[in-house]
Amino acid sequence: MENARKKEILREYKGRKTQPGIFAVRCAPSGQVWASSAADLSKHPNGLWFQLRLGGFPNKDVQAAWSQHGEAAFTYELLEEITDDNALIIGELLKEREAEWRKELAAEKLVG
């Protein structure tokens, strides 16, 4: 690949917009629900499933349910996308909305 093309691809990648938001992970057989926020929802499911497949997910309850029931029992659900003209308050909005969603769904915190 030519250097100019590599630079163009890198520039496009760095210039892409991220989509922060709130999501839930559900285990159908156990009925367990976990909710959390992510700075970029488009990349998040892949990394989450990858960690669970490797068996090293930080939340031991989630990892135990995954090990017991398998990947097919889990779903990733987008709950809410967070947008605001002021990028400086996105972090606070994520915290607030995550807490509200966990309360509404009676969900545990996924990580942290």
What features would you describe in this structure?
The protein has 112 residues and is an alpha+beta fold. The chain has a four-stranded mixed β-sheet with strand order 3-1-2-4, sandwiched between helices. 19% of the residues are buried.
Can you tag this structure with a few keywords?
112 residues, alpha+beta, 4-stranded mixed beta sheet, 4 helices, 45% helix, 21% strand
Mean pLDDT: 90
Helix content: 40-55%
Q: Count of helical segments?
A: 4
Structural class: alpha+beta
Major pleated sheet: 4 strands, mixed
Number of strands: 4
**Main β-sheet, spatial strand arrangement:** 3-1-2-4
**How big a fraction of the residues is strand?**
15-25%
Global geometry: flat
